[in-house]
Automatic annotation (TrEMBL):
UniProt lineage: Eukaryota, Fungi, Dikarya, Basidiomycota, Agaricomycotina
Official protein name in the record: F-box domain-containing protein
Pfam families: F-box-like
InterPro entries, alphabetized: F-box_dom, LRR_dom_sf
Residue span, F-box domain: 33-83
Superkingdom of this protein's organism: Eukaryota
Length: 536
């Protein structure tokens, strides 16, 4: 017993000594001992949180903590380089703040933000605009219209400017005679007046261009693009003059990585056929049109599909997933991914929301469901290993749509291992497809140059995810006990069985259904995950 007490006393003394050492080090190693460079980076992290609506800078209270931090902030001009001007009730206070920050920023490059300044802040706005030649980035948002009283302050030279964001009427006119040799990124949204394509923005070596509004020449837009060979990202939304139809030359953009267009069908067709991009460029199209004459000729849209398919063949080996779905606005969408999509995300791996190819048709576009299935039929999808189906019952119940979709799944997705279906009708269709051997129109010999080795739809399928399906209606036997079970048993007997079935947000799963599925699992070694979540 005495030996135990001795050891116990030693342990207590060691613990007490350790605690004293920790407390001593904590008193000497504090935040005040951090290097100035590290503190500046911490302050800069908060410096990005500028709330222009309330005209607040979340980092400024940090400078009031102590005299040391205050002096540190005043000695580093970079901390004062992000300057914003928004709404404010006290015009004199706004002006004094702008002047003070410009003075403290010394001669470093500036990031300037202007958010809908009121008439009472004109003095502060003029003070900020005087610093445009020092600006690295400019962001003018919701300025309706840009005040005429400051147009006389338009700069002749902005030698440091690399990025411009403009959202508002007549704001771009402020830069109509400005030289911007380093400008690379332009985001220009304007609704009140047409976007002038002869603006100095388009004479800069741009890499990123995002335009929204009504476009007006001369010159025509293709001529503008031909002068921007370094473009890496091009985003367009608006209307174009129809005389562009007379163009007979292409705009070659060898460095383009993203092409996104939200335009009318004739504009989309014309621009895509006249913009030469590489296969690695991500392409997003949102096709709209209010012209009834155009709606009667969807074949003009379909005529571009072989061009899309031809370009996609350059990345066919990288295609890993494809989806056919409807958006919350009723638009029909086809998306092809070359990296893990968001709907396959796991706790370890985060998926992307940006597909390599995305085509969206408005809900009132005639035959949009069939048209996009025709596109899927042409695409090189033989390497895709995941398929996502989320289409409302009113669409999928239509016989032509159902037959065309079945044909796509049967003939174009031979290597899919993971299928995710949302809703009862898509799930029923998938069960029907899984239940019967394939009878391809090409005789089963090959698909896109790839030989067929078996006679089942998606013969490599391993995982089936079913979501948002009511499984029991009126006490009748569910399709789990009939069509799906029959399909799973038949595939297992043929040597093409599944390994995993999952149900998510599928209320009213019957215990007898689970017993039947588990008996199948016990027999063939499947893993079944079931969720009995209630309907929202």
């Amino acid at each position: 017993m005495s030996l135990f007490i001795f050891h116990r006393s030693v342990i207590i003394r060691v613990q007490a000594s350790t605690e004293q050492t920790i407390m001593k080090n904590a008193s000497t190693v504090s935040i005040m001992s951090l290097p100035a460079e590290l503190l500046v980076e911490i302050f800069r992290f908060h410096n990005d949180e500028v709330t222009l609506w309330r005209q607040t800078y979340s980092w400024l209270p940090i400078t009031h903590v102590c005299r040391c931090w205050r002096q540190l902030a005043l000695r580093h001009p970079i901390l004062w380089s992000h300057i914003g001007l928004g709404r404010g009730r006290d015009p004199e206070h706004l002006y004094q703040r702008i002047v003070a920050m410009l003075s403290r920023s010394s001669n470093v490059d500036l990031d300037l933000d202007v958010f809908n300044p009121t008439q009472v802040s004109q003095r502060a706005l003029r003070a900020l605009l005087l610093a445009v030649p020092r600006a690295r980035t400019l962001d003018f948002r919701n300025v309706y219209p840009f005040p005429e009283s400051v147009q006389d302050m338009a700069p002749a030279d902005a030698p440091r400017l690399t990025s411009v964001k403009i959202r508002g009427e007549n704001t771009a006119h402020f830069f109509a005679h400005c030289r911007m040799p380093l400008l690379r990124k332009v985001e220009w949204f304007e609704w009140g007046v047409p976007l002038k394509l002869d603006h100095p923005f388009f004479r800069c070596p741009l890499t990123d261009l995002n335009l929204r509004g009504k476009f007006e020449g001369p010159p025509d837009f293709l001529s503008v693009l031909r002068g921007l060979p370094l473009l890496q990202s091009l985003r367009l939304r608006g209307s174009f003059p129809q005389d562009n139809e007379q163009a007979n030359t292409e705009s070659v953009l060898p460095h383009l990585r993203t092409l996104q267009m939200d335009v009318s069908m004739p504009t989309w067709r014309f621009l895509y056929e006249h913009i030469d991009t590489t296969a690695s460029a991500c392409i997003h199209f949102n096709v709209t049109d209010a012209d009834p004459h155009v709606r009667q000729a969807p074949d003009k849209l379909v005529s571009t599909f072989p061009v899309i398919a031809a370009k996609l063949r350059g990345v066919a080996a990288q295609i890993c997933a494809v989806s056919y779905s409807c958006t919350i606005y009723g638009c029909v969408k086809v998306a092809v991914y070359t990296s893990l999509p968001y709907w396959l995300s796991t706790a370890e791996i985060e998926g992307t929301w940006d597909p390599h190819l995305c085509v969206v048709l408005e809900p009132d576009f005639p035959g949009s469901e069939i048209i996009l299935l025709d596109l899927l039929k042409l695409l090189p999808l033989w390497n895709a290993n995941a398929f996502y189906l989320d289409v409302p019952a009113n669409i999928l119940n239509e016989s032509p749509v159902k037959q065309r979709l079945a044909s796509v799944v049967r003939d174009n997705l031979p290597n899919v291992t993971d299928v995710r279906v949302i809703g009862k009708i898509p799930a029923l269709l998938m069960a029907e497809l899984l239940a019967s051997p394939v009878s391809p129109s090409n005789g089963g010999a090959s698909f896109c140059g790839q030989p067929r080795t078996d006679g089942w739809v998606m013969p490599r399928l391993e995982t089936l995810h079913i979501s948002q399906v009511r499984l029991q209606i009126g006490g009748r036997p569910t399709w789990l006990k009939t069509l799906l079970s029959k399909a799973l048993v038949a595939r297992e007997n043929a040597g093409v069985g599944l390994r995993c079935i999952s149900f998510w947000r599928c209320p009213e799963i019957l215990e007898e259904d689970l017993v039947d599925l588990r008996s199948l699992v016990d027999r063939v070694g499947w893993k079944v995950m079931c969720s009995r979540a209630k309907e929202d």
